[in-house]
Amino acid sequence: xxxxxxxxxxxxxxxxxxxxxxxxxxxxxxxxxxxxxxxxxxxxxxxxxxxxxxxxxxxxxxxxxxxxxxxxxxxxxxxxxxxxxxxxxxxxxxxxxxxxxxxxxxxxxxxxxxxxxxxxxxxxxxxxxxxxxxxxxxxxxxxxxxxxxxxxxxxxxxxxxxxxxxxxxxxxxxxxxxxxxxxxxxxxxxxxxxxxxxxxxxxxxxxx
Length: 208
Hints:
By secondary structure, the protein is an alpha+beta fold. Helix content is about 15%, strand content about 25%. The chain is built from two helices and nine strands, in the order E-E-E-H-E-E-E-E-E-E-H.
């Protein structure tokens, strides 16, 4: 029996994989770097299992994220999805994620070194936690928006936004709690030659 409950139970916390912050406990009111607290006992799912869990959660996730009133991703689940099933992302705390891109970012899946996406491109990655105890936790929505040339050179003109499952805003590169998003770009600098964009693992890429 799969149990759908809230995010960040105290028994599942290990370390913050990107920010480098160690932790031994966390509760529902914690705010500092919660989004990347790694899950110690993430379940191993088949693609069919992962897809079914995501289908069961989609409406709940859409409603929660919508509370943030972030217009650029208001209909992200209607965009092309680039993975055939949710896949585990180590850089997102061992959560299962999906990768979406809007129409402006249609070349996201074919970028080569030196290629860039145009201003207005938006990438959205929603997430869920599934533990080996059959608990499920809606995760954060991670957003990248390509800004006009020169708008934010310190991040390669990318805006990073993180929306928590209840719609609260964890941080926004060009808005509230901007410092909380610095580590996002620090991670994406590893793929600077590909316009700071990671892509779906080869075994989960959706064939177009």
